[in-house]
Structures are given as structure tokens and as C-alpha cells.
Design a protein that fits this description.
- The chain has eight helices and six strands, in the order ββαααααββαββαα.
- With about 220 residues, the protein is of the alpha+beta class.
- It has two domains: about 100 residues, no CATH class; about 90 residues, no CATH class.
- The strands form three sheets. A two-stranded antiparallel sheet has the order 1-2.
Length: about 220
């Protein structure tokens, strides 16, 4: 039995035929190991925007790097793709080596944008301070603030309400909670705006590495 997978490289589609043992080794061993290495100790929530490879996406990314640097025939592309699949299935190239190889062109940009998205998420949920009290800004807390304000606005709750910041209890009126919601929303929006600006810098070539993303004025 054999499997056919298709990869689109620079607008052209190529079919690769694999024996079932090669296909199964890639799907059941190589790709899961690669994604486990990328995931590390991060939770699913922390993986937002981070590339999770499929067999097709890994093959496509590898071939795009080749075609961007060399003028090669379709037959050679198919041969190199099949060689890569056989190599990965046999583990002569490890997931760690694939993940750590230097990236160029579109592959580098995609990797940097994923890194920026992960950085933005960490900043987004990192919390912010309002009137000396530190408030969490994770997704659940953002939603809880919005619900509490809505309940105060429609009379389902009576002000003041009790709220627990980091290590401190506060009582909040409707206007207090509106101020907290405004500052939290501004904090979150700033993180997204900076990610957008960084992605624009990646596209126009002014941001070329992870260090530039880390040192950006988030």
C-alpha cells in the first residue's frame, strides 16, 4: 500500500508517493517528536501562533527554501522531497536538527512572526497595574472584568464589588471597574498593536532576528 501527499511550492503542486511504512514512521514518530520539541513545557494556551508542523507543511517549508535559492527542475524537486521524507522517516536527520536549522526567506519570516505572536501572548497575559494594584490580564480575567461591569451596568450586581488583585483585596464601584477595564483593554491592545508593527518590520526587512523582537519597546 502507498500514500500520496501533495505540497504546493511557489504556486506549483507536487505529488509525493510514500510506502505505508515510510508514511507511518513520519506520521507516528517523526512529526510528533518534532512538535513535542517545539512545544517544550509550554501549555496549549501558550502555543497560540506557534507553528505546529504537519507532514505537508514541513515538506513545503523545506522545498520553498531550496527553490528560493536554486533554479531546479520539477523532477529534481520531487526527488529532493522524496529524499527528505525517507531521511526523516529513517531518523538520519533528527527533529531537533530540522527545528534548529538556519531559516531564510519566507520560512524565516514565518518563524519570526510565530515568535512575535508568542511574545505578544506572554505580555498580553502578564498583568497590569491600576492605582497601585496589580491585575491579572489572562483571557479568563479579561472576560471576568467584562462580565462584572455588565452586571453592574444592568443592576444584576450592586456596587461596590469585591475584587482580588495580586495579593490585595479592593472594592470597586462601577466607575472604578470601568477604569480597570479601560486600562486592561489598553494593555492588551498595545500588545497586539506592537505585534502588528513587528510583523510589518519582519515583512519589510527591518526586523531580522529574535533579538530584535525581544528588544522591541513592547
Amino acid at each position: 500500500m502507498s500514500f500520496v501527499i501533495s505540497a504546493t511550492v511557489n504556486t506549483k503542486s507536487y505529488d509525493f508517493t510514500l510506502d505505508d511504512n515510510v508514511y507511518n514512521a513520519l506520521i507516528n514518530d517523526f512529526i510528533p517528536k518534532l512538535n513535542a520539541r517545539i512545544r517544550g513545557d509550554r501549555t496549549d494556551d501558550q502555543m497560540e501562533g506557534v507553528i505546529q508542523y504537519t507532514l505537508v507543511s514541513l515538506l513545503t517549508e523545506s522545498l520553498v527554501e531550496i527553490t528560493n535559492k536554486e533554479n531546479i527542475s520539477d523532477a529534481d524537486i520531487i526527488k529532493r522531497g522524496n529524499d527528505a521524507l525517507l531521511s526523516w522517516a529513517g531518523q538520519s536527520v533528527s527533529p531537533a536538527q530540522i527545528a534548529e536549522q538556519p531559516l531564510e526567506g519566507d520560512a524565516l519570516k514565518l518563524s519570526l512572526k510565530s515568535y512575535a505572536a508568542d511574545k505578544r501572548y506572554q505580555i498580553e497575559i502578564g498583568g497590569t497595574t491600576v492605582d497601585g494594584v496589580h491585575y491579572a490580564t489572562d483571557r479568563s480575567t479579561q472576560n471576568a472584568i467584562a462580565r462584572a461591569f455588565l452586571c453592574l451596568a444592568n443592576g444584576a450586581l450592586t456596587e461596590p464589588i469585591d475584587w482580588k488583585g495580586s495579593g490585595a483585596w479592593v472594592q470597586l464601584s462601577q466607575s472604578d471597574l470601568l477604569n480597570v477595564a479601560r486600562i486592561v483593554s489598553t494593555h492588551v491592545q498595545r500588545a497586539f498593536t506592537n505585534e502588528r508593527l513587528i510583523c510589518e518590520g519582519i515583512d519589510n526587512g527591518t526586523i531580522l532576528n529574535k533579538e530584535a523582537i525581544d528588544s522591541y519597546a513592547w
